Amino acid sequence: MATIHPTAIVSTKAELGENVSVGPYAIIEDDVIIADDCTIQARAYIANGARLAKNVSVGIGAVLSNPPQDLKYRDEKTTLEVGENTVIREYATLNRGTDYNWKTVVGSNCFLMSYIHVAHDCVIGNNVIISNAVQMAGHVEIDDYVGIGGMTAVHQFVRIGRHCFIGGGLRVNKDVPPYILAQGEPIQYGGINSVGLSRKGFDDEDIAQIKRAYRVLYKSDLIRREALDKIRSDFEMTKSIESIVNFVESSQRGIIRG
């Protein structure tokens, strides 16, 4: 049974699971599904299309699944999906999707800090940490185990590969390949995320191979196509190396500079 503060406004059409807690002055609209053990704190607004999995925590004043800030949006029925055990802190805003992708997605075990904005049709993977005041435009894709420093802006349609760490106060206007540190103004390759990879169980040989691959990609005189061909010919195509090659090869915006 849900525990709902007397001052909260919760639609009778909304579906609330067991042990859901709804704080003072929170608002939950009709087309909302909230699974077991979620916490909706004071003054949070959960709009139509929100789908929260188990044990999601929504902070004070956060606004979830409000309409996208897209002039092409015509009130089509879209959703915002949030995975299990994700924490969304104070005054974050997460828009639902448009008919481009029909949904905005945040994975499981994520930590989204205060004042962040996740725009329409973004897809965020699992175990992602997004620091205070990060601002994302529409259609951004962030893979698993990414960390983004505070007050960073991410351009629309940018892709960020798994296990990256992006520094604070930056402008991400190109794709960021997996396993690296991104830093500087303009944003650029700053080495690989060795500490993060080691903490996630990557062995020394795998980390060394990733470092060598990026040396070919960023530090040689080869153009990108030649660098990818050299990596294919000279490296064992482990899962890590294959993911680097596939990411760079499929980039539509181009990758950050070396």
Please, could you describe this protein's structure?
- The protein is an alpha/beta fold and 258 residues long.
- The protein folds into two domains: 3-139, UDP N-Acetylglucosamine Acyltransferase, domain 1 (3 Solenoid); 199-250, Udp N-acetylglucosamine O-acyltransferase, Domain 2 (Up-down Bundle), CATH 1.20.1180.
- Helices cover 17% and strands 27% of the residues.
- The protein has four helices and 28 strands.
- Strands 1-4-7-10-13-16-19-22-25-27-28 form an eleven-stranded mixed β-sheet. A nine-stranded parallel β-sheet has the order 2-5-8-11-14-17-20-23-26, with no helix packed on it. An eight-stranded parallel β-sheet has the order 3-6-9-12-15-18-21-24, with no helix packed on it.
- Helix 3 (224-234) runs antiparallel to helix 4 (239-250).
- The mean pLDDT is 97.
Task: Give a quick precis of the structure.
This protein is of the alpha/beta class and 258 residues long. It is built from 4 helices and 28 strands.
Give the arrangement of secondary structure elements.
Layout lengths: L2 E2 L4 E2 L4 E2 L4 E2 L4 E2 L4 E2 L4 E2 L4 E2 L3 E3 L4 E2 L4 E4 L12 E4 L4 E2 L4 E3 L7 E4 L4 E2 L4 E2 L4 E2 L4 E2 L4 E2 L4 E2 L4 E2 L4 E2 L4 E2 L4 E2 L4 E2 L7 E4 L4 E5 L1 H6 L4 H16 L4 H11 L4 H12 L8
Parallel strand pairs: 1-4, 2-5, 3-6, 4-7, 5-8, 6-9, 7-10, 8-11, 9-12, 10-13, 11-14, 12-15, 13-16, 14-17, 15-18, 16-19, 17-20, 18-21, 19-22, 20-23, 21-24, 22-25, 23-26, 25-27
Antiparallel strand pairs: 27-28
